[in-house]
Amino acid sequence: MINKEIKTDMKRTKKILICLMMAALMMMPAACGSKKGTAEPTPDPGIADGTYIADFTTDNSMFHVNDAYKDKGVLTVKDGKMTIHVSLQSKKIINLFPGTAEDAQKDGAELLEPTTDKVTYSDGYEEEVYGFDVPVPALDEEFDLALLGTKGKWYDHKVIVSGPVEGDDINAVIGESSDKEAVTAKDLELSEGEHSAEVTLEGGTGKATVDSPAVIRINGDECTAVITWSSPHYDYMIVDGQRYEPVNTEGNSVFEIPIPYFDSPFDVIADTTAMSEPHEIEYKLTFDSSTVK
Known about the structure:
Number of domains: 2
Strand order of the largest sheet: 5-6-3-2-1-10-7
CATH topology of the largest domain: Immunoglobulin-like
Strand content: 35-45%
Oligomer: single chain
Helix content: 10-25%
């Protein structure tokens, strides 16, 4: 009789264990599915969805946004994810990779393919260059962005995206940012003699440059700058209707021209003989008063 009761209890216990195991098995897929199906939260970019113009700056002067756009690109924020479109200097960069050059060469690496962008310079010249849509992990923080050149070699670079301004017109934002109050050498109370200041050049095809910082000379009420071009083919400059000849006979063209004011661009014309016929090109020069030494 006792053995019979023991066997009955064992059967009951076995049934209970089987039920518990079945219940556990039924719950496991639901739990796993719930874990697998839960998407990781998207990091808050700290900026609302929309379109912005933002600065795209790099660690190398050979890799940067086209000069016509002054280091700016169109930043798109959608569902908390950020992408910036930048037009580069030419078609010499054929791929980008959001990471290191080493990782870009691994199997399965997803490379950024170029778009063909048309850029119009201040003198009306148009040129086709490559552009890229670059994922932006965070604003104001340096991140890796490798590039592949036409020679088939990958290079490591770091970039920063910053200063977003709402809108989608780069030229409009550039115009607003350059509209600073002009100050003269007299306003700055510069002493007699030689100084220096950072200078930026705009216009043309964006391929010509001038040395910066430039030498500045104060002589009484006159404030002049020594402008050294990246080419020996400039044979004269025009500033405020006055023509200026080079002050050197060898090497890259050098001119001494007046500076009407600082912190706001002023128009100059430079004539180049590098083309089949001499050609006057309109440029703008801006001297930064905060860099005067």
